[in-house]
Amino acid sequence: MIETVGLKTRSRFTFTVDTAGPAGGALVLLLHGFPESRHSWRAALPALAKAGHRAVAPDQRGYSPGARPDPKDLSNYAFEKLIADAIDIADAAGASGKRFHLVGHDWGGQVAWGVAGRHPERLASLTILSRPHPSPFRRALLKEDGDQKHRSRHHRAFLDSETGPMLLEGNGRRLRERLAEQGVPDTAIEEHMGVLGSPDAIEATLAWYRSNKGLAADIGKIAVPTLYIWGDNDATVGPDAAHGTAEFVATAYGLEVLPGVGHFVMDQAAAKATELMLAHIAKHPV
Predict the structure, then answer these.
(1) What is the DSSP letter of 27?
(2) How confident is the model over 41-92, as pLDDT tens digits?
(3) Contact (CB, 8 A) for 33 and 106
(4) Where are the domains of the chain?
(5) How many CB atoms lie within 10 A of CB 96?
(6) Domain range 3-283, its CATH number among 3.40.50.80, 3.40.50.300, 3.40.50.1820, 3.40.50.720
(7) Distances (CA, A) of 228 to 34, 244, 257
(8) Taking the model in full, what pTM does it have?
(9) CA-CA distance, 65 to 58, in Å (whole number)?
(10) Is 73 left (phi over 0), alpha (psi -120 to 50) or beta?
């Protein structure tokens, strides 16, 4: 059974989180991407709970109304603060001073790479969906063939001050179409729009891009056992960045390529992704 609660952290923010599983179970923290929300993990939470884990999926900074500092001040959405949020949420969820398992998709994957780079001692395992390690991603962006630059062209649009209102026009028509085109079902789209479908929310979520242009991050090699799941039909992450990620993990590493699956893995291949996630976590117990 999934329970939705407000989780107050030491930062005094209150994050909206979905949680499932025994309170004493090893924590699995799941971080969503854009333009989605905690609802991305609706299929994974019951499976993690059944395996005895305490699964916690928050709406992150800007997505949670109780954790939405002014997006006009872009320092509020700096990468280091997003990383700190993940640690604060884990501590507030019962893993204070303990190791936990971390899972991230898209922007949540970027944050998860950051947590693994800055706080490897806190993680028992790392599972990333879609988002490659920042170093091969940046390298792919600079390639002369322009493939990754073309795939990431929406990042530039998100820097424009008119983008937020445009995305919400017509009841969020553009956002809805983008998600539907990439295999996200209507019910999930409604859930995500319920989180980010207001002017305050959309500006806060776009502040992630505006504060962290180009997704640049100096993280270095990862010393946490890592599983990277990538769909070979991902419209926003190309094969160079995906396959280049192995070079930047210095310990146990596995790449799982899902044929025919796009960027939104948990919407197109939730059962397979959850199965892989559970197997990886089981190999690296807290």
Answers:
(1) E
(2) 999 999 999 999 999 999 999 999 999 999 999 999 999 999 999 999 999 9
(3) yes
(4) 3-283
(5) 11
(6) 3.40.50.1820
(7) 18, 11, 8
(8) 0.96
(9) 12
(10) beta
